[in-house]
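Troubleshooting log. The previous run stalled partway through. Resubmitting the same two chains, unchanged.
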Amino acid sequence: MRLSSYFVPTLREEPTERDIPSLRLLLKAGYIRRIAAGVYTFLPLGFAVYKKIENIVREEMNRAGGIEIFMPALNPAELWQESERWTNFGPELFKLKDRTGRDFCLAPTHEEVSVEIVRRTIKSYRQLPLLIYHIQTKFRDEPRPRGGLIRAKEFVMKDLYSFDRDEKGLDESFEKIRQAYERILQRLKLPYLILEAEAGAIGGKYTLEFTVPTPSGEDEVILCRSCGYASSKSIAMIGDSEVPQGEETPLRKVHTPNLKTVQEVASFLSTTPDRLVKTLLYIADGRYVAALVRGDRELSESKLSLAIGAKSLQMADGETIEKLTGAPMGFSGPVNLREDVLIVADKEVAKMKGFITGANEEDFHLIGVVPGRDFSISMVADIRLAVAGDPCPKCQGKLEEIRGIEVGHIFKLGTEYSEKMKAYFQDEDGSLKPFVMGCYGLGVSRLVSAVAEIYHDEDGLCWPISVAPFDLIIILVNTQDDVQRETADKIYAQLSQKMSVLYDDREESPGVKFKDADLIGIPIQIVVGRKAMENKVELRVRRTREREDVSLEEIEDRVLSLWERLKEE
Amino acid sequence: MRLSSYFVPTLREEPTERDIPSLRLLLKAGYIRRIAAGVYTFLPLGFAVYKKIENIVREEMNRAGGIEIFMPALNPAELWQESERWTNFGPELFKLKDRTGRDFCLAPTHEEVSVEIVRRTIKSYRQLPLLIYHIQTKFRDEPRPRGGLIRAKEFVMKDLYSFDRDEKGLDESFEKIRQAYERILQRLKLPYLILEAEAGAIGGKYTLEFTVPTPSGEDEVILCRSCGYASSKSIAMIGDSEVPQGEETPLRKVHTPNLKTVQEVASFLSTTPDRLVKTLLYIADGRYVAALVRGDRELSESKLSLAIGAKSLQMADGETIEKLTGAPMGFSGPVNLREDVLIVADKEVAKMKGFITGANEEDFHLIGVVPGRDFSISMVADIRLAVAGDPCPKCQGKLEEIRGIEVGHIFKLGTEYSEKMKAYFQDEDGSLKPFVMGCYGLGVSRLVSAVAEIYHDEDGLCWPISVAPFDLIIILVNTQDDVQRETADKIYAQLSQKMSVLYDDREESPGVKFKDADLIGIPIQIVVGRKAMENKVELRVRRTREREDVSLEEIEDRVLSLWERLKEE
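Second attempt completed without errors. Output:
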């Protein structure tokens, strides 16, 4: 492709949108353009990268036994009402009406449609397992679009749905796709972590998240470098650590006027926050719950929900707190709570003695509180938020906190959707059973940004060859020089037979051409300049900055072997 | 691909939706499934056909110099307000709001976004021409979805936008894409007509429509088989024909009580409808217009609009008619009309003398009306609707009426959008000029139905090999017979190296397998049955019903040469 007749509008000025490096570079290098907040156009180079990623995803889905279909974005409300997600999905669901007043949504995911298709077509266990997928444009009314293609209102996702006869089948399908995701990320040359994660609006009993670690990512990850344990921060488990237990002292009530924060109370009592225990009141599926964590810790609501098996969890409001404790907010404690409150203590708290808590009385705290003696713990669980430095739950190594971009998320859904939507098959024994489902999402357009986020330097993008929009760029330094032009034309004709070549034949200054070549980041560069008179050109590797002069006789062989090497790297 | 592990849910019963044959067959053969009115899922076979068509379209667009990008479906209202189509596009435009209350539409076409991209990136005539396209899912709130993929609410279109320096450049771009469309339709083995057509909501000065002639199509086409003239019926021109002129008789007023229709008046006056002239009153861009056509003819509002250069045309209501004629509806005539009414006579009427019209007085008609003597014609034009039997405007041959499916529509837009949206480039002389635009739509998903509409018979689909989901199907008659199974396995392994093969290895009766193979319509069939014991299989051609026994030694060569033949056909 000759750049003079292509469409690569690189920018001289800095883009205004640059919240993460890849967004700045994809805009500046002419890969994408913003149409509205969270809505982008792929320009030719961006679309070329997207297509390469899409093809890798398609190949690996097919290899894993996935069958490609194409489901619509417009979904009738009725299907989403059956799954109860018409109301439960939340404000991210774009809703609209057609001219007859019928309700539709723009699907952000396709559990409903896939179940609708399967329940109308699959009747017998003999037709299972079935793994169907599509690669399709999705919509999500994001409150805060971010990072360009990372969190967009319109994006392309690959989503696969597995339908199995039983849990064992689901486990096999899940494992197939898990492996396929690993192959995809390896082919994209992306580092990745596989995290234990929350299911969110999709549901399901077990989920894994595929995350590309990078400081600009918005996902918080807890990681153990010793054993490889990795988890979404919100649900990361924590190993056992030595806790200063304290002593069994008598229970005393102290006046703590106008002191509300943990720090204020600790200072007033000349102690440290780790001697306090916070009592946080919640309503979980209609039940009252008091969660106890040490004064210097944060509660993880996700872990609390998982521990008590709650589907919904809301913090209690002031009125409820008064009702349960007899005191206003800020003075809650586990002693003399109303009997119908489930007291869930973090495992750290369960080991402590003689700590300080609210007295359930305005302006008073209790000191010397001892569980068992002064109140009863209903349940001990790991419910505090993990932080860097905490012990690993698997190997007791030191946990680290890093950030990452979630690129994939896979779910064991079980029979949640098939039961709600009455999707049954006839099993070998003649009985009707609900399909056992899994679902598997991969952010195809998001992966463009994820790769760019990993592969760039101060001068621009440096794509791995598996996703680069072209393999090679030829930079003709002086278009007015006949020798240079003929040399470049010849190399272009010759190498275009072997690989995809972009030929910068524009009438621009050498400075602009070199800058643009580095900015757009095609892996191999050939500079055709003055040395063309001596039958030599310069061969450069964008990412490593290797450079050397190569004779015209050798150039094809040298490029081909370099190309092979870069594919392996 | 083994059918036993694929997903081809053919139906035994007849689908309820079957308004045109291709819809019935695409549903029955398991190519598509309905999700809502006008909203479909492509199942694996349907998606395979779609992908083949998409690839042909992409290849030809690239060959014509098109550069592929990918524009979003979510379009901010602001862009459509600039082009004035936010209100002018009509109720087909799906509108929605995001959570912040901002207005968006789901784009049914991308003039606005393409102009937005180009006006921000192209500054100089040196960067022109630019032809950008995408293949993308579009939305249109159709009042009456029809024919499955033919008129759907969600569909895939290829749309290309050309940006040129001047009209000459536009003509060249237009011609390139016109030729590319012809190549595409030829590769899809589709018969087609290129029609003169109306621009509709897209606008522009000159448009051509690509239509596949078929009785089930919803577009009405006027065609001359002698010279090839073809036009959308609404704007088809009509050649000159001999008109019985009549005689110049005195003007007389006759009482015609309670007679309103042309037929009633003609009968009452013992004459034929072709001796009457209808006077139809309109408001065109605020002006009053009376259109005169012979009593047995229909007016074409489109031709009237074109003749008088009107942007809007509404039929006058009863009140306006009374104001202009002094009489109620049904008695209008050209004699003594209010002076500010433009009288446009069809060219046939202009030749007539002594005809009958309304008298502009309730229950009265005039007979013996002579143009020039009794009233003045403001403009003579070809404004009546063409019908079968009319003379061709080019060769005076006999026009025919047929029906067709519009698959493509290309427009010379000129500077309409670039001026409204302030999209300028700097020309060689330093002046700022608006881009001269063209736009070019092709219904990619609709083409799946169009091909199916042309290629089917009473037993099912019979795809041309260029778009068939597989080249070959192997039908294993008896899965329990070792010889048959081993023979089929061997042929499957052998031919899968050369072409795409579907292998019906299901445990179904031979009858079901033969029926399904004919229904899904893969071009080449190999039947592995009892003759496998004699080292023979049956080779069949789906469309022509050719059948012959072929030995196993010869089968590969025979299939390959048949395959080549079918590709040429």
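Takeaways: DSSP finds 15 helices and 31 strands in chain A. Chain A has a mean pLDDT of 95.
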